[in-house]
Amino acid sequence: MKSENMSRPVLTCEEVCRYYKKKEKHIRDDGTVAKTSLVKAVDGISFQLAPGEILGVIGESGCGKSTLGRLLVRLEKTSSGSVLLDGENVDQMIRADRLGFRRQIQMVFQNPFDTFDPRYTVEKILVGTMKLHGIGSSAGERRELALEKLTAAGLLPAEDFLRRFPHELSGGQLQRISILRSMLLSPKVLVADEPVSMLDISIRADIINLIYDTARSEGAAAVFISHDITTTRYIADRIAVMYLGRIVELGTADEVALHPMHPYTEALISNCSSIDPRDRRPVIQIKGEPPSPVDIPPGCPFAPRCPRATAECSATEQTLKECNGRLVRCSKVTG
Amino acid sequence: MAILSLHDVCVTYRSSGKDVHAINHVSLDVEKNESLGIVGESGSGKTTLIMAILRLLNPKSTTVTGQILLDGEDILTMPDERLSEIRWQEMAIVFQKAMNALSPVHKVGKFIGDLYRVHVPKATNAEIRSRIEETFELVNLPKRIYDLYPHELSGGMLQRVSIAMSLILDPKLLIMDEATTALDVVTQNQILEEIKHLEEERGITRIMITHDMSVVASSCKNVAVLYAGSLMETGPVEKVLVEPIHPYTQGLVDSFPTFATDTHEPLKSIGGSLPNLADLPKGCVFAPRCPKACDICFQTPPEMKEYPGGRRAACHLAGGASHEE
Questions:
Q1: A92-126 tens-digit pLDDT
Q2: Residue A63 and residue A50: Cα distance in Å, rounded?
Q3: C-alpha distances in Å from residue B192, one per residue of A101, A103, A157, B4, B195
Q4: What is the pTM of this model?
Q5: Does this complex have an ipTM over 0.95?
């Protein structure tokens, strides 16, 4: 019974798509004119997240990783496919009980400076959240809990922080408050969209450790969206690599980061320079920029930039296949 | 001879009656053909230093003291006419936000053309166009960009346009202020490769400001570490980033996860935050956050000392302390 519970995914994505319609005249490759265009930001993403697991999502900007994050917490509606939280469809959950749904899945955003109401003190931010969600029975109790959480996150002296306004805090401190506000609700899933990219290197490690430790201690699962492969490898159990709205490779963090199989993952990782100047791996140059997600050509969308591509790659649709315990979307990769 | 040398440069902002010491006694030489990376946290004064070198700081609210010599000429004291002459011709800058560096209502070619005309007033339209297209080629941009507006270009292309713009008058010194930070790793690497190539070809000296040390590690010869407006350590990249002398550099290096990091070991970070620049600590500026700080660090500011291998560091404990480990 217990083991069955353990293995049941807390978050499931089934062929999740998000298309945007754009009213703009544009000329297709074959010369015909289209009046509207379809931007396929997220195009058929499927994965399962086990309780307590941390999934990293990496990719270049514009690959749809942020849209995916917003779909998971239902800030955006899926065009097709469904997101299931604990086996329940999020569309139904949010209609039935919006607050209850928000308690179960929380998000940490990229820019901590835009996350808070500038007129609220930290106390109002934290206590207000608890009051809204019915945590704690009295104002005193909520305040105590806020103090306890601030102390645990290393924001000392906690009393002093409660009185401060967001503009009096640094980015790192705000991001810590953002994380602990999310974790106050003991969510089952935490979605973090580039939580450290705005912060200084010297404090990034603190934030990464905080997300890792709180997720682990609360038993929450997390989706960590980032473009930084080394950081993602550090925090995540599994990594999904996205290219133009699709997952091109999904596997355990170490395997994907150290032995990438998909040519895109390989190129992306070879481009991440190390801070150790002695560690100079050959960089795989990929030409051009990703094609626009408007009217993606048939076949593999990476084919025009891929060093291993042949004629058939641009002709045939690639599917996500299992390969040595990993999912890879490339016909050139065989187990 | 050094193409750019800074002697005891200090920059002070006056802000609501208080003096904010943004740059404190920075001395630095940049040799010809050197590529120097300046790293530091935000607020460490990287951009202020560059603004001082370009003399772009508002003289009403800032005081710059010391000497900034470009090829032997002091930028701080030269007449305004001479200054406008050497900007873009002798030294050019690529700003972080390429989107904001160009005019949204002018075509890219027109905008760069205006810049060219200011410095070469006799140039004909055809000459300007061919010169701009030539420069576009250097940074792998198609010629058709000339007739496009900035909003029609992607971030990577815009950044290339900014770089092309900085190269239009063949400057000796190229300053890049977080020029590739907003780009994807793939595009960033493409551009860095192009820049490195151009440097060799045209003998350009590059100063690169960034907080991303991996960029410095892969594209610069030397590195200077700045903290709270003071220079902490300088030297060749392969020495400074591998065996840092200064505890601050060590802290920065440690806080970077690498592929070699064991994923189960918690990442290290530097506790605390930058000191208040209006009220700097009496001793070493890094002492309040330094794990190794002792009494002397809080009492007297350390002097810049020379170390073997062309390195310099400002730390009381350097030498002895770092060798013990």
A1: 999 999 999 999 999 999 888 889 999 999 999 99
A2: 24
A3: 46, 45, 44, 22, 5
A4: 0.82
A5: no
Q: Given an 8 Å threshold on Cβ–Cβ distance, is A271 in contact with B189? A: yes
Q: How far apart are CA A48 and CA A55, in angstroms?
A: 9
Tell me the C-alpha to C-alpha distance, in Å, between residue A241 and each of A172, A189, A233, B53, B189: 27, 20, 12, 42, 19
Is the CB of A7 inside 8 Å of chain B's CB atoms?
A: no
Q: Judging by DSSP bridges, how do beta strands B73-74 and B62-70 pair with one another?
A: antiparallel
| B309 and B233 Cβ atoms separated by less than 8 Å | no
Q: How far is A131 from chain B (nearest CA, A)?
A: 31
| B242 neighbourhood in chain A, CB within 8 Å | 276-278
Which residues on A lie below 8 Å from B258 (Cβ)?
A: 230, 274-276, 279
Is the CB of A283 inside 8 Å of chain B's CB atoms?
A: yes
Q: What is the pLDDT of residues B154-184, one digit of tens each?
A: 777 888 899 899 989 989 999 998 888 777 7
HSE-up of residue B21 (Cα within 13 Å, Cβ side):
19
- Amino acid symbol at A118: P
Q: List beta partners, residue A55.
A: A223, A238
DSSP label at A294? B
Q: Are strands A54-58 and A80-85 parallel, antiparallel or unpaired?
A: unpaired
